[in-house]
Design brief:
Elements (H helix, E strand, L loop, with lengths): L1 E2 L2 E2 L4 H24 L4 H28 L12 H33 L3
Antiparallel strand pairs: 1-2
Helix pairs in contact: 1-2, 2-3
Keywords: Membrane, Transmembrane, Transmembrane helix
Length: 115
């Protein structure tokens, strides 16, 4: 992203960590859904991965909120409205992640006393 000749650079390790945690969270959620949340340890791993996903989304949305204030008017660059829409989309995604996190905590609590 180029904002007034300033580049925001993220290290490859951080980028791949964010992508990997998000993909792992969704794939592990699918695994637990297919298994019916029967394993306590897999439920705890899933809770940790969704907690990390929520922890990653907050700084990303704050960065996009900051970027939405810039509009250099150059042709071919995204407008401020685009960044505001992306920011709102991330907020909706964050609410969905928290709802899934609450559901997972509920299912883990249900299965906790059964073992």
């Amino acid at each position: 992203m180029n904002i007034h000749d300033t580049y925001f650079v993220i290290a490859n390790e951080y980028f791949w960590f964010c992508i990997t945690v998000t993909i792992f969270s969704f794939s592990y959620l699918l695994k637990c859904l297919l298994n019916g949340f029967s394993s306590r340890s897999s439920n705890l791993i899933l809770l940790v991965s969704w907690g990390l996903t929520a922890f990653i989304i907050v700084p990303a949305s704050q960065f996009l909120f900051m970027a939405s204030g810039f509009d250099d008017g150059l042709e071919g660059t995204p407008t401020a409205d685009f960044w505001k829409n992306v920011y709102l989309g991330l907020k909706v995604f964050y609410i969905l992640v928290l709802a899934v996190f609450g559901f997972l905590a509920f299912k883990t609590g249900q299965n906790w006393g059964n073992k």
